[in-house]
């Protein structure tokens, strides 16, 4: 079944542009009054969006995990609602996708695809378009998080920075700043973009501002005594959302690890070389976008096959692993974590067990 899933993924990927054009053409026929008013530019955006839908679908199929596609479909439903699209826009999109794939795929392949589309269509009927704020009362630093968010939304990066630096000077642990301010604020930024309350430019500004504030905290982060353990951390593909793995690397520094943060778009050969040169105990891999799951799988396979990767433990993290509890196992990793502190706790367990086994 796994081999067939991979064949389906490859077939869809190879034909994705043609499939997207056929899907959009069919949808325009069914909803012409709405879509045609967006003109040629709107047509190209629709084809691009259909391409995204297929990319997520094929990754879910390759991972044999419908949850990945269902979650994406719900995300798109909320995005479309924020854009003011008709309530049935996504339903029609998925129905057109099903019809076109039915025409272009073999019955055997369509039998694999069908449950993913049917389950997603069913789930659409029950999911709300409302997304609650991530800045909820109950956490000790909620007020600070709201003040920080407000400063960023007003374009006052320096005031946002001063709020954080003052809090640290007052004795608030940098780890708590990361977990209770930076992390929920980043989630809230994503929610505001998804619901069409901020622009892409604003989202990028907020993220860049937070990265600058994080850099100002480095004197506190890099002052921890080292414990002789080494981490290599990276994002796969062309991930733009790399702030999460940067936070994880900072937590490892605060826990006394030597960290080597490679960022995004690092060639696999360079990652393997760094693991060998730094004698890494742990490789942390981040993926925010579901359509990069196969890239994570490919990187893990390359690391496992290399001599330098035989002893290194591998942690994976990011959004796809938060919504699919067993995905990390299917990809061959040693574990996953929902936040930076959980990553530290699990890493110490894994490396301690590894050291104990090596000494036997």
What does this protein look like?
By secondary structure, the protein is α/β, with parallel strands linked by helices. The protein folds into three domains: 123 residues, Phycocyanins (Globin-like), CATH 1.10.490.20; 78 residues, Methionine synthase domain (Methyltransferase, Methionine Synthase (B12-binding Domains), Chain A, domain 1, Orthogonal Bundle); 136 residues, Cobalamin-binding domain (Rossmann fold). It is 67% helix and 6% strand. The protein has 18 helices and five strands. The chain has a five-stranded parallel β-sheet, sandwiched between helices. Strand 3, helix 15 and strand 4 form a beta-alpha-beta unit. Helix 1 runs antiparallel to helix 4. The longest helix is centred in the N-terminal third of the chain and has 24 residues. The protein is globular and about 65 Å long. The mean pLDDT is 92.
User: Which whole number gives the mean pLDDT?
Assistant: 92
Question: What is the domain tally?
Answer: 3
Order of strands across the biggest sheet?
Answer: 2-1-3-4-5
Helix/strand class: alpha/beta
CATH architectural name of the largest domain: 3-Layer(aba) Sandwich
Helix percentage range: 55-70%
**Quaternary assembly:** single chain
CATH class of the largest domain: Alpha Beta
Shape: globular
Strand runs, count = 5
Radius of gyration: 22 Å
Can you tell me the CATH superfamily of the largest domain?
Answer: Cobalamin-binding domain
């Amino acid at each position: 079944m796994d081999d067939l899933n991979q064949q389906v993924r490859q077939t869809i990927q190879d034909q994705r542009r043609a499939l997207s054009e056929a899907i959009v053409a069919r949808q325009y026929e069914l909803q012409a009054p709405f879509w045609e008013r967006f003109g040629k530019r709107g047509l190209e955006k629709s084809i691009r969006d259909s391409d995204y839908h297929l990319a997520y679908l094929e990754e879910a199929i390759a991972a044999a995990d419908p949850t990945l596609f269902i979650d994406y479909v719900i995300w798109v439903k909320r995005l479309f609602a924020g854009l003011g699209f008709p309530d049935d826009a996504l339903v029609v999109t998925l129905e057109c996708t099903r019809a076109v794939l039915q025409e272009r795929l073999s019955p055997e392949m369509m039998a694999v695809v069908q449950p993913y589309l049917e389950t997603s269509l069913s789930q659409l009927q029950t999911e709300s378009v409302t997304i609650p704020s991530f800045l909820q009362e109950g956490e000790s630093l909620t007020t600070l998080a709201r003040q920080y968010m407000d400063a960023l939304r007003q374009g006052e990066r320096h005031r946002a920075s001063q709020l954080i630096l003052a809090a640290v000077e007052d004795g608030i642990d940098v780890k708590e700043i990361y977990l209770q301010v930076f992390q929920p604020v980043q989630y809230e930024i994503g929610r505001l973009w998804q619901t069409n309350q901020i622009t892409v430019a604003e989202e990028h500004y907020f993220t860049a501002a937070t990265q600058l504030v994080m850099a100002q905290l480095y004197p506190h982060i890099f002052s921890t005594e080292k414990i002789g353990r080494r981490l290599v951390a990276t994002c796969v593909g062309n991930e733009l959302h790399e702030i999460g793995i940067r936070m994880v690397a900072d937590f490892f520094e605060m826990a006394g690890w030597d960290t080597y943060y490679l960022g995004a778009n690092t060639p696999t050969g360079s990652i393997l070389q760094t693991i060998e040169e730094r004698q890494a105990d742990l490789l942390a891999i981040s993926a925010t976008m579901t359509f990069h799951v196969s890239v994570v799988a490919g990187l893990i396979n390359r690391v496992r096959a290399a001599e330098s990767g035989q002893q290194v433990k591998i942690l994976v993290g990011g959004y796809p692993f938060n919504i699919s509890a067993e995905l990390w196992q299917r990809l061959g990793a040693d574990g996953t974590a929902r936040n930076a502190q959980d990553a530290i706790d699990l890493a110490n367990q894994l490396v301690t067990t590894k050291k104990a086994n090596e000494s036997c």
